[in-house]
From TrEMBL:
It comes from the Bacteria. It comes from Lactiplantibacillus brownii. Residues 27-334 form the YqbQ/XkdQ domain. This is Late control protein D. Pfam families: YQBQ. InterPro entries: YqbQ/XkdQ.
Length: 335
């Protein structure tokens, strides 16, 4: 396996440079579900052919004749006769900011709207029919607008949607995009793993606070597993976490003009998000182009099975590929 296409070309002219033989070190390709553009980072040696990368140049990269990356130069450094380049795929233009008034609409409709406004080629692979409430998005990035729509849709439908660049086209997809039969583990692809559980950012008591402008006082709605008073929303899971972790409290201001019932609902919803430990699983593996964010693979690691994480299909949330003589990748997985 090898780099089979690697070019840098101008947007406004027909000039294109083949840089396959100029690469110095790793070519690093990253995909991430966390509302980030895919990136390609690489170094190329300067040659006396009038070639200098320009910001905005088009970068195309194939590995083993598979189209992997289409994007644009956003940053380059020049030191010691070498250019160090960072290119981003078309998702980068979803960082553009705008002010929009959204009518009642679906995630699919909002995705099509912002992608069109960002002037990027796009398509809906997996759409949603769930209706989102009308809202005003003032001075927010297109990524922010999509994140809000995706999170609300997931809460309502249980389905996780995400946006990803499929070479030169940005797509709205549902996770997992591809549920691969590939097994990653002790005897297949994996060379190292790191597993972590943390409650650093967890909370098992949530208080929603609203200031009363007329009296100067406050009213609060509390979601807690410690008590069962009329201001409390309790679940057995939350009580269990307080017993095991101690009281971890989080306070947030009420949404604008919320009444007390809405404050309790807000507290309950936030408790569901906060009342959990963060689990991180990172693997170092032999490279495979199908191991990208949004796909799922089977994990089979005996050491992890011994602590309760048996063989199962897990979603890849971030993947960083290193293309060189020893093609490797690091993948992060949702547990």
């Amino acid at each position: 396996m090898a780099i089979t296409t690697f070019t840098i070309g101008r947007r406004t002219t027909s000039d294109v440079w083949d840089v396959r033989e100029l690469v110095a070190g790793d070519v690093v390709w990253t995909t991430d579900l966390n509302y980030s553009a895919g990136s390609l980072e690489f170094d190329v040696i300067e040659v006396d052919e009038g070639f200098t990368p320009h910001n905005g140049d088009i970068v195309k990269f194939y590995w083993d004749n598979v189209q992997l990356f289409y994007g644009f130069v956003f940053d380059f450094k020049y030191t010691n006769e070498k250019f160090s380049v960072i290119a981003y795929d078309k998702l980068r233009y979803l960082k553009n900011q705008d002010s929009l008034v959204w009518p009642v609409s679906t995630l699919s409709q909002r995705f099509n709207k912002v992608a069109t406004m960002a002037s990027i080629s796009h398509r809906v692979v997996n759409g949603s029919n769930h209706k989102l409430a009308a809202e005003v998005a003032d001075g927010k990035s297109y990524f922010d607008m999509l994140q809000s729509a995706i999170e609300i849709t997931e809460q309502a439908t249980g389905s996780l949607y995400f946006v990803m660049a499929n070479y030169d086209k940005v797509e709205l997809r549902k996770a997992p995009y591809k549920a691969l039969t590939l097994v990653v583990g002790d005897k297949s692809l994996m060379t190292k793993f790191d597993y972590e559980r943390s409650i650093e950012d967890a909370a098992n008591v949530v208080r929603i606070v609203r200031s009363d402008d007329t009296t100067g006082g406050e009213k609060t709605a509390t979601a807690s597993s410690a008590t069962t008073t009329k201001l409390t929303i309790a679940t057995s899971g939350s009580k269990h976490s307080i017993d095991n972790w101690g009281r971890l409290q989080y306070v947030e201001q009420a949404k604008d003009k919320s009444n007390f019932a809405q404050m309790k609902t807000q507290a309950e919803q936030l408790l569901k998000v906060k009342n959990k430990q963060t689990t991180t699983l990172k693997l170092t593996v032999i490279g495979d182009p199908s191991l990208v964010a949004g796909n799922a693979v089977y994990l089979r690691v005996q050491s992890l099975k011994d602590i309760g994480l048996g063989t199962k299909s897990l979603l890849i949330t971030k993947a960083t590929h290193h293309f060189n003589a020893d093609y490797t990748a690091e993948i992060e997985m949702k547990v």
